[in-house]
Amino acid sequence: MASSSELRSRSNGKPHVLCFNQDLTPLRTVKVQSPTSGKHFYGCSHWLNSCGFFKWADVEERVQELQFLLFERDTRIAELEILIEELKNEFKNLNSATVDKKLYNLLVASWVPFAIVLLLLGRGG
Ligand SMILES: [Zn+2]
Description:
Helices cover about 55% and strands about 10% of the residues. The chain is mostly helical. It has two domains: about 1-55, no CATH class; about 60-125. It has a three-stranded antiparallel β-sheet with strand order 1-2-3. It is rod-shaped and about 115 Å long. It binds zinc ion (ZN).
């Protein structure tokens, strides 16, 4: 019934529902005291006159909102995974640089006394 005239787009994650006249239908809330009060619906501005477009919004709106949140979360996860990879590489480089320096210091520290001993022996002999 309504489905052929509905179009939705994904700008800023909110569903856009068009009525039978291709007008953007605003999201409204049932304000009268009834079992449906507080529920959301899409109703055309001219719905009492010519158009008559009406559609409950709750379920579909929430599904789209959740899908958008899910998409945002997945994107965030992907970004964080890249960041983790970068930090791992940085840490690895930092670690190997530190180890190299330590090894270098250790070599120098072990060769310097040996060289001094050689010098002293050379003088003495
Ligand atoms: Zn309309």
